[in-house]
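Appendix B, Record 12. Input sequence as logged:
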Amino acid sequence: MTDEEPCEDWLGLLERETGPEEVLSPPTLHIVSSSTEEHRGDMLDRIQRWEQDDAVPHVISFEDPNHLKQIFSPHRIDIIRHLLNNSNVDIPELAKNLGQAVEETKDDIQLLEKYKIIFYREKDKNTKIYIPYENVKIENMWVLSSR
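Logged structural output:
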């Protein structure tokens, strides 16, 4: 896990090998800021829960909480909210609905796709974007010191 690339759990690895449409996504995507050690411990716990047929979220973890904050700007949060409620829209339609420029929205979509939050689907000869989750939970721990 680095500041540039989040650490994905085993569900994310499975999606990369088979494609998101072929894998039944869990209902929740949980995005957190945690150390590599904390993430590994949490991942082992999720695997054990999954083996017991418990529902477990797909987790993406960032080691640097400031990097997480940079990625999830208010505009990108609006994109995620819109796509959770309006699946299979194209980028110009999304930009219009959010009152944003198409190029700015396209750049944000590409970044969110890089982190496996948004996916592309060919539909009716048009590229549509979607989120394969019912919920996205973004959690950021802030550590303050007197230094």
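Residues 7-20 have pLDDT under 50 and may be disordered.
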